[in-house]
Amino acid sequence: MNADALVNMAVEVPENPLIPPIPELVIGLVAFFIVFAILAKKLLPNINRVLEERRSQIEGRMEEAEALQAEAQQVLADYRAQLADARHEAARLRQEAQEQGATLIAEMRAEGQRQREEIIAAGHAQIAADRKAAAQSLRQDVGKLATDLAGKLVGESLEDAARQSRTIDRFLDEIEAQAADTTKAEAGR
Amino acid sequence: MSAETMLAFDTQCHLFIPGCGFEAPGLHSFVFEPLFTIGGYEFNKPMLLALLSTVVVVWFFWAAFGRAKVVPGKLQMVGEAGYDFVRRGLVYDALGKKEGDKYVPFMVSLFFFVWIMNLWSIIPLAAFPVTSVISFPIGLALIVYIIWMSLTFKKHGFVGAWKNLSGYDKSLGWVLPLIMVLELLQHLIIRPFTHAVRLFANMFAGHMLILMFTIGSWYLLNGIGVVYAGASFVMTVVMTAFELFIQAVQAYIFVLLACNYIQGALAENH
After folding, report:
1. pLDDT of residue A155
2. The domain containing residue A35 runs over which residues?
């Protein structure tokens, strides 16, 4: 392009750039109406429907989540209550067991005491009985021996049982009195 | 496609080449030789880009929302973010959810269509913001204007609509006639005009800046001029990044104003 062409081009320039050529105006309007028609009739209703659907879905999900949350809270509360009950129960059982144990020990102790006392008492009775039997047999034997001895010495038969018995008794009483005196003397010393 | 139909500047000319000088970008940079002619009507690059904008916007939203799923894919997520940005950030904000829902498709289409038309400015090979040709912003502003006016008359009736448009308020007293003239002028002429021209002028100026530095870089690319060409090229990159921002902002403002005008039409009279 040379200088002449530039001059030609400059001549072609419209005097006022604010005056629109009609073909351009028409093309611009047509271009815009195509965009508007397709967006307004098809694409924007499309996306609006999807947005609405998404909104409702999100709301549904949120409700679901809230329900789940509430359920979880409920379960947790139940669990905690059960746990507390169980702890309470365990404490109660432990307490009871302790009490029972103490009672049992006390009972055993009492039983043992009683048995011991019984045994001691039985022992005492046995001893007393034995002593009594021993004294009895001793009295008889000693009486007989003494009578025999006296009979032999005196040559006189002391057949009379009553007399014999009286004599033995007197003899034994004397011995007993003597023993008592000895004991007293020992105690007094 | 030749340089005449695509570039609108002379690619042969450099610094120190005799017989030609620096050709600054100007109004002629926005006039393209027609690509072809149908029945006497010329079809040029901005028209092609406008139609491509339609293709891009429709393709994107078709890919994103065509088979929309409740669990979105990546593209659908991006589409939803863009859709929500316009719907909540612009329409619901200005008009409320109840009133605004009707205008959401229009505003979403408007935003993305304008944005993509702006965006061609920094796309290689396209490299031209369609909205820097007045026809396109004026067409869109005209649609908004028609919606705005018909809503005003539908909502308030004939007398009420004129009261609405003229800011009729008895309590103003003697200044009322003056206010009415100004308000009518503003509502009927200035607002729709600035609505279109704001977008047009911003894109026009931005493209002019990028062109200035681009053509400058190209022109200086000879001999010692290479150093200056480098500086100019850095500015091209900076301005391109800045334009990327401005394109989105202008599309946003265009739709924001459209929402505000409709809100004004629906508002009760004072």
Report:
1. 60
2. 26-182
